[in-house]
Design a protein that fits this description.
The chain has one domain: Ribonuclease H-like superfamily/Ribonuclease H (Nucleotidyltransferase, domain 5), CATH 3.30.420.10. It is globular. The protein is an alpha+beta fold and 164 residues long. It has six helices and five strands; from the N terminus they run βββαβααβααα. Strand 1 and strand 2 form a beta hairpin. It has a three-stranded antiparallel β-sheet. The chain has a two-stranded parallel ribbon with strand order 4-5. The longest helix has 18 residues. 46% of the residues lie in helices and 20% in strands.
């Protein structure tokens, strides 16, 4: 699942995009910038592809769900997904329930990172805070939806069971 959010700073808005693995709840890609170029929504999936490729995991036929925002329905975005064999799943316009997990990650980010580490003076500050928060989220935060494991523990458990 993918989504992005706005982060207020003293020098203007920053924007953070996330890619979350639905199975493990792991944030596999993210990007924070001080502007909203067309590259921002593409940068987070690029990180996710790099993370999965580095681990030797095949992403062919992976389903990437997003809301119907123009960033995720752009031709360039669809072409990049097609290049790696990913399948786009786009929610209906104005329905936040279609993208509930991504919205939940954004809500946790704002509560556990932005409110605690902010207010930020520049866009560089939320980028560093996001890096730290994503590390904590993936490696230390327990998630009730995956049996009170961390996302990395959930993935490791899965690979131990499927590759004994």
């Amino acid at each position: 699942m993918v989504d992005f959010t706005y982060v207020p700073t003293w020098s203007g808005m920053a924007f953070t995009a996330f890619v979350t693995d639905v199975f493990s709840r792991r944030i596999v890609g993210w990007r924070t910038m001080n502007r909203m170029p067309t590259d921002l929504p593409l940068d987070a999936p690029e990180m996710a592809l790099w993370v999965r490729d580095r681990a030797g995991e095949d992403v062919t036929s992976v389903i990437q769900h997003s809301d119907a925002g123009s960033q995720y329905t752009a031709i360039r975005y669809a072409e990049r997904l097609a290049d790696v064999g990913a399948i786009a799943s786009i929610g209906t316009v104005g329905d936040s329930y279609d993208n509930a997990l991504a919205e939940s990650v954004v809500g946790l980010y704002k509560t556990e990172c932005v409110k605690i580490d902010g207010p930020f003076r520049t866009a560089d500050e939320p980028e560093l805070a996001t890096l730290s928060w994503v590390h904590w989220f993936n490696e230390h935060r327990l998630h009730s939806s995956i049996g009170y494991l961390t996302p990395l523990e959930k993935e490791n458990q899965y690979y131990r069971e499927t590759n004994p």
